[in-house]
Amino acid sequence: MRVGLFVTCLVDLMRPSIGFAALRLLEAAGCEVVVPPAQTCCGQPGYNSGDRASARALACKVLDEFERFEYVVAPSGSCSGMIRTHYPDLFRDEPVALERVRALCAKTYELTDFLVNVAGLQEAPGTFDGRVTYHDSCSGLREMGVRAQPRALLAKVAGLELLEMKDSTTCCGFGGTFAVKFGDVSAAMVEKKCENIAASGADAVVLGDLGCMLNIEGRLRRRGDDRTRVLHVAEVLAGERHD
Question: Domain 2-117 class?
């Protein structure tokens, strides 16, 4: 299987270890992986802010760079959800382009969903000595149907114990521009999420979107919690963790 890895701009700029972990996992599943070097953003920030022109321009760029691959995989429910769920809306009045976009959507996957349901990854390369809890990021859960997949993969990690937190599917309050526009509401939401993480007794919180990771880790540290690690599921599965 020839896979185009959509690294995402946040991963590229903030935590490249996630991209390398995703690459390792895809290769472990037997995929030929290509990372288009000029890739940038999926266009979600502009789309969510009503700037359809900039979102469409970036969508065209993604389409040109990735439509040649058999599959497109992103270590992000947010970015994969933008492509699969919202790109058709951007091209709804352009029949020719819409056909190309729908073909791209049909082969776009969030990383854990692809590893479980397409590639059939049998073993996780990584190990983890400790207890983790899992936060279900909103876009991955609600736009891409990702919930059981990361848990199934984490169950393959030697030494790892998964402890479910209360309200794991409740938003952490990030939501991209939501955290900027509604700072007080966002802060209250992530505070509750951090309380649930602490109550779980886990050594680390694991999740699939870097935006949520940044929001949760920032709040944990402001609460004085320097112990709980915040890890992307790809890092844990591949054994390529950022500490």
Answer: alpha beta
